[in-house]
Amino acid sequence: MSESYNLCIIKPNKSAFSETFIQEHIIRLAGNKKVLYGGAFPVYDHEDKFLIKSKLSLLSYLVQKKLLGKKSIGVRTNALRDYFTINKIDVVLAEYGMVGAMVTEACRLAGVPLIIHFHGADAYYKRNIDEYAELYKKAFAYASAIIAVSKDMVSKLISLGAPADKIFNASCGVDIITFPQLDISNSKKDFLFVGRFVEKKSPQSLVKAFKLVVDKFPDAKLWMVGGGPLFEETKELIIDLGLGNNITLTGVLKTAQIKELMKQMRCFVQHSVTAANGDSEGTPVTVLEAASSGLPVVATGHTGIKDAVIDGVTGFLVDEFDINGMAEKMIVLAQSPQLAVQLGKAGREHMINNYQMDDRINLLNKIIKDSIVKR
Fold first, then answer.
1. What is the DSSP letter of 63?
2. For 323-352, what is the mean pLDDT?
3. Which uninterrupted H or E stretch holds 370?
4. Is the N or C terminus of the chain more exposed, i.e. has fewer CB atoms within 10 Å?
5. CA distance 21 to 26
6. Is the pLDDT of residue 21 over 90?
7. How many Å apart are CA 352 and CA 293, to the nearest integer?
8. C-alpha–C-alpha distance, residues 325 and 158, integer Å
9. DSSP assignment letter at 166
10. Stated pTM of the model
């Protein structure tokens, strides 16, 4: 079929530095794209105007949402249905399960096929699952396709009631040209972490493991890029452990700045865990970008990471909260730049063979087109 179909992408946030995968969808997917945003249910249209046009209707919506706490709000659903109809939308791609669940009824009323792309917390975070349980059931029944980003997530979605024949395993990809192979043969004992400072990234576990590395190699350095609710707590831990000269907290950096940092690194590290509330990773894009750049990865065997990192081949995997194990693997790479180069090259090949962005986009394009045809 031609590329002249109208694709509506609905996302929660207008912009979020950690959601580069959604931006890649907006840029790269085929079709005439219109992007809506503003929470689990879109508030704004592609022109940044309120989706609900009437002031009276907007007031009714606010009362039902803010004062009554409703999830199913007819005036809002009808506004989205009308948007689909007026703009002749052929298919909807909902980024995150909660978004898909909330817009299902509008898609049904407009007769528009719906593809729901899960990413992480939407499949694992207990509060989300409990809150959206009934809406998920309706969304799973209506959706023409459901995207998971790891084998682990496929199993999780099936356990939540998603039909197995609708689920596609299509993790986020990496642009291997944007993140080319680096020469790390002369790298110092420098390690890199990039991510939000949240419970499921467990930055404190990484700091504790790195303390053991510094005990053996006082010249080892760790660069931690990002921000979040655990940033100050992590900063205090670094000071308490006497690591102020070994760990640099950069705050949030742009992609170009991260790429510059990667050039001096020996290894990428990430100690992801299942949070107390069930929140878990999908497939961390930063792990893919590091592997594409030829950096070996030391991480936990957590959800999609265990697909992206081949233990002993492209890096090392340890159990969640295994501080000593994490330290031991970092020490191995601190001792051997040659091994780091070997693992890094294998990681680059793994990305080329299994995680290329173009391949991922082509798969999504096919799923989208098939959904339109099936309608």
1. I
2. 98
3. helix 357-374
4. N
5. 9
6. no
7. 11
8. 32
9. G
10. 0.91
